[in-house]
Amino acid sequence: MVSYDLNTPITYLKGVGQFKAELINKELGVFTFEDLLHYYPFRYVDKTRFYKISELTADMAAAQVLGRLVSLEVVGEKRSRRLVGKFRDDTGLIELVWFQAIKWMQDHLEIGKAYVVYGKPTLFGGAINITHPEIESYGRQQMSVTGNQSLQPVYSSTEKLKKHFLDSKGIQRLQETLLSVIGNVIEESLPHAILAQHKLLPLATALRFIHFPASAQDLHEAERRLKFEELFFIQLKLLRSKHIQKTKFKGHVFAEVGSKFNTFYQDRIPFPLTNAQKRVMKEIRMDTRSGAQMNRLVQGDVGSGKTVVALMSMLLANDNGCQACLMAPTEILAQQHFNSLKSLLGDEIASIRLLTGSTGKKERKIIHQQLAEGSLDILVGTHALLEEGVRFRQLGLAVIDEQHRFGVEQRAKLWRKNAIPPHMLVMTATPIPRTLAMSLYGDLDISVIDELPAGRKPIQTMHLFERSRLQMFGFLRKEIALGRQVYIVYPLIKESEKMDLMNLETGIEHLVREFPLPDYRISIVHGKMPAKDKDFEMQRFVKGETQIMVATTVIEVGVNVPNASVMVIENAERFGLSQLHQLRGRVGRGAEQSYCLLMSGNKLSKESKLRLETMVRTNDGFEIAETDLKIRGPGDIAGTQQSGVLDLKLANLATDQPLLLEAREAVIRLFEEDPELLSPANQVLRKFFGRNGNGISWDKIS
Ligand code: ADP
Ligand code: MG
């Protein structure tokens, strides 16, 4: 027998050939034997059970029925032209419907013959039918490639592939052929000790079972093994680069707590730090004293007081002969950070400047010069900080706010700004569930500010329907009369034709009628405005010159106006949970009771309802993040977009948390016993690094 290796192109698989190979390359992204092997079924059909036609209901996901085709007829015209087959067993009759491949079905189906039909029952005109069912003649079904197997794999295919007989069944045949030629060359990828300890199937067995499970138990075991492997290798890579960072990269040593830090802490700071802030400061102190380069993520809900932690860390850098910078994702935010840092600092303690895209030439020149000679202690800004011309004399600490807005490259650029890489402090107000953080940021150290400053009154959140709009306006009037300010946020700028959204413009017209000058002044900020105008409008609101801020989601992050006490979110059902939570965090920043009013239409999907209910129930960002992860899955959670976590084929970070913890622990134990992976048993793992490179994986932390 010819022996193949897993890198063999699929052209060489019996039954494929060049034409089909190219089609499969294109349609499925499958090139080699190995790729095909990892092209898993997306579901399995339980064909152990036949349903009676009388048992079928529209809420079944799918069902298999054995019966006889009693008639076949083309009905309707044009777009509703369809082939309808009447299909019966001894309990009743259903209709099978095809809108496509009508001719083919007519040619291949025989009236009077027994068929096994499988599909999703739906209710149409009071009767059950199945549209585009899988249908096979009874005899053939018994003898199909998978024999009498109970769980039949279903592979996703495409129209083009189906035209060339590569439907799910076709792919299944290829898998069967493939396993028969390479079943014995699938190498184990995990050390035997780990297999034994975690009771995992060997890789070859797991792959066979994932394609052709003989039982639900086999399938479960196969999935567990393959999921474990996915999670294990992510952790291996993350913890390995963490280890490399810790051992191979020297960091600035901030040995001193000097006069800048102390003057601030003793004379200027306007409030006592919360215990959580103190703890995080301690963690940062330890890191920056250790001699290794710090890579720390600070997670803290909106309003938890991350800014002051950033400031104190930057002063620590200054006290140790280094400069520091703080980078924010938008101009508004950078400006706001600059303002609040400046007012916290006063004029004495440290010098600070702002650099953004709209900084003028003259100011730029001063900044460049002061950076180079070292007289500028702290530089705050946007992406502009990354420009070539921005050169520090000695950059010791880079703080990045709202990290998920920044890409991989940008982070790497900051890192390269200095001969000794600066300590990195990444701050996010988007709480990330623990397991997700472990996978996305597993090579960072994580600090959590899980406590709000004392005296904050929890924001009261209410969900209102359109019919309560006038009451809502009345409420706003009352709050404004008390001297408070109000945000009203819309999801879109321009109404799209199809979506029945009240858009910003009609909303504003309505508002102007309800809140006429001179008693009320309105600021308007939206994404399509030039930065300068945005800033002008923002500033009017910040200074209290306007009482109402109407905005699209540009105000989502960071904006701080403690006098604002009401957040109205229009079409709240259109926002994701984390966005809603972020928006709500714009209020509740002062001493007054604050409110969040979620306005929605009457018709809500199940998910929208759950989102709004969650918002009304809790203010806890971590609880909200957990719910979000459950609703959406990890793919849409902020930060996952650019990470390898999305490549997970089987594992799901929302539902496979225990397995993730198990995999992570396995990796930690492994590195404890054999940090350089030198033992013969661990050579299989070195191969993994050979395949994937082992540099610093910035790609995992964006
Ligand atoms: P975020 O974590 O959302 O960036 P900020 O740093 O903007 O939060 O802080 C929110 C508000 O709370 C600011 O007005 C800040 O001055 C205030 N603040 C921060 N820490 C404390 C504290 N320990 N006690 C009282 N107020 C605080
Ligand atoms: Mg902030």
Q: What proportion of the residues is helical, as a percent range? A: 25-40%
The kinds of small molecule bound in this structure are: adenosine-5'-diphosphate, magnesium ion
Mean pLDDT rating: 86
Question: Which strand order does the major sheet show?
Answer: 6-7-4-3-2-5-8
- Indicate the CATH topology of the largest domain: Rossmann fold
Number of E-state strands:
22
Q: What oligomerization state is this entry in?
A: single chain
Beta-strand proportion: 15-25%
Low-pLDDT residue spans: 143-148, 497-501, 638-644, 693-702
CATH class of the largest domain: Alpha Beta
Strand-pairing-aware structural class: alpha/beta
CATH homologous superfamily (4th level) name of the largest domain: P-loop containing nucleotide triphosphate hydrolases
Tally of distinct domains: 4
Question: What count of helical segments does DSSP give?
Answer: 24
Shape: globular
Overall radius of gyration: 31 Å
Describe the protein.
By secondary structure, the protein is an alpha/beta fold. The chain has 4 domains: 1-47 and 166-186, Orthogonal Bundle (DNA polymerase, domain 1); 49-146, Nucleic acid-binding proteins (OB fold (Dihydrolipoamide Acetyltransferase, E2P)); 259-449, P-loop containing nucleotide triphosphate hydrolases (Rossmann fold); 460-618, P-loop containing nucleotide triphosphate hydrolases (Rossmann fold), CATH 3.40.50. It is 39% helix and 18% strand. The strands form 4 sheets. It has a 7-stranded mixed β-sheet with strand order 6-7-4-3-2-5-8. The protein has a 7-stranded parallel β-sheet with strand order 12-13-11-14-15-10-16, with helices on both faces. Strand 19 (522-525), helix 19 and strand 20 form a beta-alpha-beta unit. The protein binds adenosine-5'-diphosphate and magnesium ion. Residues 271, 273-274, 277, 300, 302-308, 429, 453, 560, 562, 589 line the site of adenosine-5'-diphosphate. The site of magnesium ion has 4 residues, from helix 12.
